[in-house]
Amino acid sequence: MSTISASEAPHLQQIDLTKLSLQQLTLLKQQLDKELNVFQDSLQTLKIAQSKFQESGFCLDKVTPEAKVDVGSSLGMRRFIYLLGILLAKSKLCWLIGVI
């Protein structure tokens, strides 16, 4: 028998899964599957963002005062939102947010 503790969150209610009908259990499983997919997608997105962040750190470490910097680099964030990065100095990066 599965139970959910309500001691940490008093607004939640405890449900005895053995008393649910087959249809209710099926709906519960479908909802849990959807939520799990959202969490998995979010985790994948976070891993991609982490990788890009680490890569940007490696690239920034290679910038020296003598290095030529492309000030027109843009980063696509979403379908219509872009960031334009301008490197002012090795320790100063200016981001301009725009919508296309």
TrEMBL record:
It comes from the Eukaryota. Residues 22-49 form a coiled coil. The keyword Coiled coil applies. Keywords: Coiled coil. This is Prefoldin subunit 5.
